[in-house]
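Data's thin. Show one?
=====
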Amino acid sequence: MRGDIALRIDFSRINRSKAAFHDIYASDDPRAYFSVLGDLDYMIPDVAEPVVRQILAAKASATGLKPVVLDVGCSYGINAAVHRFPLTFAGLRHRYARREMRAISSETLVSLDRSFYAAWPDVGLARFIGLDVSARAVSYAKSVGLLEQGIVADLEKEALSMDSARILRSVDVIMSTGCIGYVTEKTFSEILDAAEKQPWIISFVLRMFPFESLAATFANRGLVTERLAGATFIQRRFRDAEEFESCLASLAALGVDATGLESEGLFHADLILSRPEADARATPLEDIVTVASGRGRPIGPRYVHVESKEGLQVALEP
């Protein structure tokens, strides 16, 4: 088992192989977020939604209560939007891409979005709070009513404040759909220290990031970890050939076979569920989840390997 320092170095190195999108989280509204990620066929909120819904239903059935979900790396509250309302990332992307929506101020957009979300019935199985390093993204998500409460903190670098710890006391479920790799067991330890109950932890983790140290941290707190076998979840296309090749190199370094998955031009994530052992014994993950994959969705050109006289070459496949 690798030590804490080694794991953080691994995460830092692996992250250098991914495209950076820091600017899209620095706006007062999510238009840039939807534009940039939408152009790369970002789909993890949509392909994760039916699976998360099944897990939340199992959690609610076990307790008889509507769970409080902490979305780690919540950004603009998009996971809350697709889980609480009959909406999709793809549909929201088209909304913000309209010429009329691009032309208005952030202040006007926030006002419109507040009314937009209030007009939909809340069909979700949970209440959502969020944690993110972007104050602007969290402010938007709270202002338009997607998150009940939001925490702005970088728990890799700072301790949880007393006020934030109070918010986290009631957490029943922790979920993330892409932040692991940017955050480590340090962030999750801060959260778990504040929670009054042993939560369920739903993690969609890109296959290029090792999970052993997080699983060990959770085990030390009485949680067992299950990985859904035989299924992966698409996050998005690779931005360019460099990102494609770097991801394949990172996977190869870990001994992970990318054939038929990342080699076809798409980031793939595993579903990992951590929870108390008694809960895992009562309802194994395979009994909860029926998978709906995103592989059949229409997407743009992908970077793939093709055979040539010179050997394997990178090419765009329509």
